[in-house]
Amino acid sequence: MSATVPVPKPHTIAIRPDGRQAYVASQEPGHFALVVIDMATRSVVTEIPLDKPPRDLEFGHDGKALYLTLAGVPAVQVLDPATNQWSAPVPTGVSPHIAQHFAGMASGVVVVQGPGEVMLFDPATRAAVRSIGVGKQPHWLDLSADGKKLWVSNEGSNDVSVVDLAGGPVHTVAVGNAPRKVAVQRVAAAEAAHAGSSNHVTIRNFAFEPAQITVKAGQRVSWQNDDGAPHGLVFKDGSTGIDLLLPGKAFARVFDKPGVYDYVCSVHPYMTARVTVVGSQPGS
Questions:
Q1: Which of 15, 125, 145, 269 is most open to solvent, judged by the fewest CB atoms within 10 Å of its CB?
Q2: CA atoms of 47 and 24, how far apart (whole Å)
Q3: The pTM is what?
Q4: Apex CA 263: angle with CA 103 and CA 224, to 5°?
Q5: 94-148 pLDDT, tens per residue?
Q6: Residue 25: left if φ>0, alpha if ψ -120 to 50, beta else—which one?
Q7: Could you give the CA distance from residue 103 to residue 166 in angstroms, rounded to a whole number?
Q8: What contacts 194, CB < 8 A, 6 or more positions away?
């Protein structure tokens, strides 16, 4: 643990894509708020008061909008994080829960629990585009690796809906009781290009993928930043890394000596990973 920041009754958290600030939903009775934390100093910058208890909050992929849902409000609230001012909301049905604008999608998406649907909306006009029925009391959603499907967990019907964004049929997968969260493990295009090579690490969704790799001494390891935010590599033993790796850029180094090389992101130290280097086999 690197630091602790006190927040009254924290519920959910969203980190700006540039990694500089975190927004925390505080559900303290009588003092509902968004608490903004500076990630570098680990201190509270400001609090944005709310009239209702905050539910989920998510940054859009480009960091230009923060989407927030409030208990009892049939709309998604939209905050401009550059000014911390509210923009026009996105009207929905009863009880919206999670709203997001994924990279590569023209529309934003929001799970609406009352009618049991996923609603697509225009991020610019805030108008509804279309609604797609899913299971009962949908709670969470994520986008497939190819960007063609949404996976939606339905807490009230004990299943997961697979939504074809091209308009195909919705498929249902039965799971255990009351599923809430769902997350998709994505494989970046750059990682796919290196299929068959265990020496490539993709940085995506604020994570190193894979988080642990094993190579032979003398082999080269490369990192590709396929995220929308800058990252970097700091090795705990002080060996060669890179302070800033901008989106789309790559870094590589050769590991000459066997050992365990733990590293973190220079911008987001909660991102951790490891390279294990073993001795070369005889004759190699």
A1: 125
A2: 9
A3: 0.70
A4: 35
A5: 999 999 999 889 999 999 999 999 999 999 999 999 999 999 999 999 998 888 9
A6: beta
A7: 16
A8: 200, 222
